[in-house]
Every structure is written in C-alpha cells, then in structure tokens.
Design brief:
By secondary structure, this protein is an alpha/beta fold. It is about 30% helix and about 25% strand. Bound molecules: pyridoxal-5'-phosphate.
Length: about 400
C-alpha cells in the first residue's frame, strides 16, 4: 500500500488502526495454490486464529479456502461469515469432549489430538469420521515457543502411539478419515519438513479409510530484509512429487491439506500509530506511540521484529530511535532502529501486522482495541469500529460495595 493511502486512513479513522490489503492476501493465496497445482486435490484451510475478522474470513472463503479453527467460537465466526461447516476443520488442543461433540454436531470435520478424547469420542460417536493429529517429533524451526512438533510438545498424539490409535479404532468401530500434523510456525528448512512428512506418510499407511492428509502450516514470511522465507515454489515441487507417489501406492487420490495463517495475512497488514512524544534521554531517543503491547504483543512476547516506517515523512533523513508504547510497564516495540526522522504527530506504520496482531490484542490499561480497515479494490472499508468506553464496562456489574469504617 502507498503512504498516501495509509495516511488518509489514519486521518479518517483515527489512530491506532489496523489496515489490511486484500490484494496481498489474494496474491499469497495464489502463490500457494500455484506451487501445488500438480496436486489433484488441494485444500487450504485458513487458520482463523491469525486474524479472525469476518470480512477477512469472507474474503478468504471467496478464494476457495476453508477454515482451520481451534475453538467453537472460531467455528461460529466462520459460519457467520458464510463458510459451510464441511469446509471447516476443528483442530483444538486441550478442549473438552463436550465442545468437540458440539462442533461435530454442526457438521465440522473434527481433528483429535489425544488418545483419551479419541477413545471417548469414538465410543459415543462411532459413525462420525475423525482426523487424528500426529506428533512426528520433529523440530522445525529453532524457537521453542512456536515449535509444536517436538518431543516435549503438548500437541498431537505421538507417532509412537499409532498402535494405540489402531486399537481404539478397532475397539470402537470408528473411522479415521484424515491424518494431520502441524510442526510449528517456521518451515526454515524444506528438507526438515519433508523429513517430518515421511513420518506422516509412514503413519498414514496404517489407516485404510483416509480422505485427506493435512500438513498443517509453518510457512515463514520475511519480517525484515535478509530474513529467510519459505521457498514455496521449491517446497511445492518437492512435496507434490512425494505426495502423488504416496497416493499411487495408497491406491486413492487423497486431498492434500494445509492450514496457513501467517503466510496468507501477515504481510497484508499495517498497524498505524501516532507518535505522541519524542523523548531524548542520556542514552537514546525514544519515540512514544499511541499504542502498546495491548494492541501488538508480538515484539514483547516473541521478540518479533516488525519493520517500522514513518509514513508521514518518508523522505526525511534517517535517525536512530527506540520505539516504545504507552503502557505503564516496559513496552518496547523496537530498539535502536533506523527510521526517517520523526516529529511528534507523525504516523508510523508497523509492517507484517496481519497475523497474530489484532487477534492477540487486549484491553490492558483499560484502552480500547483499535479499529480495523480493509483496503479492497482501491477503497477503504471499515471492518471493525474502535471500541468505546461502553465496550469496556459492558459486562461489568456495578454492585454496591462499601467497607465499614474501622477504628
Ligand atoms: C496456528 C496454527 C496454524 C497456523 O500457523 P501459521 O504459522 O500462522 O501458518 C495452523 N494449524 C494449526 C493447528 C495451528 O494451531
């Protein structure tokens, strides 16, 4: 998006505000489907938790993708957005049997990731086919906060427990129609991913009624210059070849599934904030913005790097800034970052603000969550209003509490 468009949005809708460029989401979707065009049946289920505004869900659904969901509330959002239940997969972790049953009754594909629930569900509902989430015990990517396929991870049923799954299937008469893995958030090395896939293929041969194999996600996008992003084209070529061979051996054309979140929406997002104050200290120059980790937690939570640009003055000379939020505790977005000279009142943009940004926002410090705007076909569409004071107090109950005076 161009600076002038971003500035006009900040002017019209105020700051801070999230902006999403629909064209970028569409082009990322097309890149992924093109990379896998030689797979007979490809199914992309967008991971709703990355960015769950219903306008985004509608956009992605109109491209032909389904949804990957982790809570019944996400399922309901998807249905509200017009997504058919059969295009939704439910991949929760640690939720109750009741929630899984409720989602299954809506006609959504269930993906179960532990033996206890698998046995209980299969005993009660042997006629509802389920997918199983397998943990291949492969560490894809180096950050343990976002790697969920390794040995100590709480996710998935260990690949070593396949015999136990088979026993549950035999005892209950249930059907396993899909097998799934999701190794983490970073496919840094395609060969490591292919290695994990081999383990999944190997596990898959144990199940005779499969309709699909779901490889989860982990597509990495660049957050700054020089970052390694997943080479989707090379990845597509390698996995397609291997998958097609598997289908031939299996004797059936299965659906190849993915659940991209970050890949589809990260780079489409810009988070606009206004610089309230420039504060020169003995050691650095702080640029204090009208937002904080209540609205964008990734830098503080994951040490994530988000590029920051001065959209008000894109041609000024570069200086070094520490960009900090307005929350009353340490709230650092960036340290010693080269940014075009900032004056108070300027609008800065945080890039890669599409995935896990608004969806992780809170009301900490009793601030309102920001507005969201979708830039689509050359026009700005408000897709979420900024919260108001009424939103903050809506569920609070004002009871009469007093403490008697003590002497
Ligand atoms: C979060 C999640 C995804 C999406 O991961 P990204 O890194 O955003 O692509 C996919 N599948 C499951 C099961 C998830 O929990």
């Amino acid at each position: 998006m161009e600076n002038a468009q971003l500035l006009a949005i900040a002017k019209e809708y105020g700051s801070p505000v999230y902006v999403y460029d629909s064209a970028k989401i569409v082009s990322q979707y097309n890149r992924l489907t093109t990379a896998f065009k030689k797979v007979k049946q490809l199914k992309l289920n967008y991971a709703v938790k990355a960015l769950s505004n219903i306008a985004i869900l509608k956009l992605i659904n109109s491209l032909g993708a389904g949804l990957d969901t982790v809570s019944i509330q996400e399922v309901k959002l998807g249905i509200l957005a017009g997504v058919a239940p059969e295009h939704i997969i439910f991949t929760p972790n640690g939720v109750s049997l009741e929630e899984i049953e409720e989602v299954a009754a809506m006609g959504v594909q269930i993906n179960i990731d532990n033996l206890s629930i698998l046995e209980q569900f299969g005993t009660k509902h042997p006629n509802i086919p389920v997918c199983v989430r397998v943990n291949p015990h492969v560490m894809a990517g180096g950050n343990s906060k976002i790697s969920v396929g390794h040995i100590d991870s709480k996710f998935g049923i260990s690949v070593h427990q396949i015999p136990h799954i088979l026993r549950i299937v035999a005892n209950t008469g249930m059907t396993i129609n899909g097998i799934h893995m999701h190794t983490g958030s970073d496919i840094l090395d395609i060969d490591v991913f292919i290695y994990a896939s081999e383990i999944l293929f190997d596990a898959a041969t144990n199940f005779k009624d499969l309709d699909f194999i779901d490889f989860g996600s982990g597509f990495k996008v660049a957050y700054k210059e020089g970052d390694i992003a997943t080479n989707i084209e090379e990845f597509g070529e390698k996995l397609t070849k291997r998958f097609n061979k598997f289908c031939k051996d299996y004797g059936k054309d299965l659906v190849l599934g993915f659940e991209p979140g970050k890949f589809l929406v990260s780079e489409a997002g810009f988070f606009l904030a206004k610089v309230n104050v420039i504060k020169q200290t003995t050691s650095t120059v702080f640029a204090g913005v009208d937002t904080g980790f209540n609205h964008l937690i990734r830098p503080m939570f994951y040490d994530s790097h988000h590029e920051i640009i001065n959209v008000s003055k894109p041609n000024g000379k570069e200086r070094f800034y520490s960009v900090v939020g307005y929350i009353c505790e340490t709230d650092t977005f960036a340290t010693n970052r080269r940014i075009r000279e900032i004056t108070e009142g300027d609008i800065v943009a945080f890039k890669n603000a599409g995935a896990y940004c608004f969806s992780m926002a809170s009301n900490y410090n009793s601030r309102y969550r920001p507005a969201e705007v979708l830039w689509h076909n050359g026009k700005a569409h408000l897709i979420r209003k900024r919260e108001t004071f009424d939103d903050l107090i809506q569920n609070q109950i004002d009871v009469d509490i007093t403490v008697a005076e003590t002497v």
